[in-house]
Amino acid sequence: MTDHRPLLRAIFDAAVAAAHPDRILAAQLPPAPRGRIVCLAAGKGAAAMAAATERHYLDTLGLDPARLIGIATTRHGHRVPTRAIEVIEAGHPMPDAEGLRGAEASLALAATATPDDLLLVLLSGGGSANWILPAEGITLAQKQQTTRALLRSGAPIGEVNAVRKHLSRIKGGRLARAGQNAAEIVTLAISDVPRDEPSAIASGPTVPDPTTLADARALVARYQLDLDDAIRAALDDPRNESVKAGDDAFARARFAIIATPRQSLDASIKVARDAGYEVVDLGADLEGEARDVAASHAQLAREARAAGKKLAILSGGELTVTVRGNGRGGPNQEYALALAQHLADLPEVAALAADTDGADGGAGNATDPAGALIDARTFAKIEELQLDPAATLANNDATTLFEHTGDLLLTGPTLTNVNDIRVILV
User: Fold this and answer.
1) Where would I find the MOFRL-associated domain in this sequence (predicted)?
2) What angle do CA 399, 123, 20 make, to 5 degrees?
């Protein structure tokens, strides 16, 4: 029986490489200004982006090190060595006190920018959790409770961020307002959101926000979120409205996306095609409940198998999980487990589902799994150990099952994030 795992891993690795800061950032960096470069970075790729920035300006261009300052706030375990830019490791997906420190320091540093300075903002997925700066009257604990409720609700990331932007002093265009005295504000972003919406990436700290307080209140009602009274009061306070198009904060601001889920999916597709597979491209912006999407994709795989096709079914985007159990896992592991339920009788089908940042759900640790792989070995192990995929899925406990079968994908931090890569090989 063919071992498909090396090819599955190569397909995943191609997606990550296409979005790595070491490969993509330098060519997009703006010229040095007359004064300083004030570099503020947030997200899982923040430290890697800061290091690439230092190499470009200090080594390639020979800039005086005194003219480059900054802070990169990244997820715990995602630090890389830097020289001029301070790295702060913070919580994700649950924000913590270090994220508060990083956001406060970043906002204060932005406010020091002068008309001779460039404010360079580098964003990647995870920035919303890493830059945590609650609105007036809200404590960190209350913001954490709100984040927990949002993540368990099954709401897509754009809706999650619509609420977070109205409870923050840095999101929703507020960082641009703090740094508007700079000669220019240049934001370079690695997109991890469907359709690459700028205001959703790291909750849009330097771009106009199209969502409103009323939108945020409607989402709280729709998902029946149990929130503290202080949070509800903040969402009723007009002072917490985000910054809108036309504000002076954006007069000298520009925004560019330097890596997208689509580019990474295309890189994965090329590997599959080069291996001789016909490809079904389901797009880079998939959303939906992980187990439901898995059922749909499993049906495509069954049809391809019945037709005798050598087929690779690929997709990107960000699926969600409505948490009803008390287990461990993330949307990619839940997708893989649901696939295993539907495909257990097809030994020549294999699949991988993983987050390109190297962490799928989990407890916010650098050792969290990126996702999971399944194939005939998985099905045999489930039977041998008498595991119950249906019960495990009901408890949202995919991590435990895949620990038993040995099918977790453990990559460690990849230092980028362009959402998920899912591939089924038939």
Assistant:
1) 8-235
2) 65
Nearest to 186 by CA among 125, 121, 129, 230: 121
Q: What angle do CA 128, 262, 420 make, to 5 degrees?
A: 55
**Global model pTM greater than 0.90:** yes
Nearest to 346 by CA among 315, 314, 384, 308: 308
Q: Which two tokens stand for residue 222?
A: 């729709």
Find, among 43, 77, 74, 235, the residue nearest to 150 by Cα. 235
DSSP 290: H
Name the residue among 255, 168, 151, 235 with its Cα closest to residue 203.
168
Q: Indicate the DSSP class of residue 25.
A: S
In contact, 327 and 337? CB cutoff 8 Å: no
349-373 core/surface letters (b: 16 or more CB in 10 A; e: else)? bbbbbbbbbbbbbbebeeebbbbbb
Give the neighbor-by-neighbor strand order of the sheet with 37-42: 85-90, 68-75, 37-42, 118-123, 184-190, 253-259
Quickly list DSSP for 54-72. Answer: HIIIIIIS---GGGEEEEE
- Of all helices (H) and strands (E), which one includes residue 371? strand 371-374
How buried is 124 (Cβ within 10 angstroms: 0-12 exposed, 13-18 middle, 19+ buried)? buried
Print pLDDT tens along the chain (426 aa): 789 999 999 999 999 999 999 999 999 999 999 999 999 999 999 999 999 999 999 999 999 999 999 999 999 999 999 999 999 999 998 999 999 999 999 999 999 999 999 999 999 999 999 999 999 999 999 999 999 999 889 898 889 999 999 999 999 999 999 999 999 999 999 999 888 999 999 999 999 999 999 999 999 999 999 999 999 999 999 999 999 999 999 999 999 999 999 999 999 999 999 999 999 999 999 999 999 999 999 999 999 999 999 999 999 999 999 999 999 999 999 999 999 999 999 989 999 999 999 999 877 788 999 999 999 999 999 999 999 999 999 999 999 999 999 999 999 999 999 989 999 999
Q: Is the dihedral of CA 394, 366, 193, 129 positive or negative?
A: positive
CB-based contact 121:187 (threshold 8 Å): yes
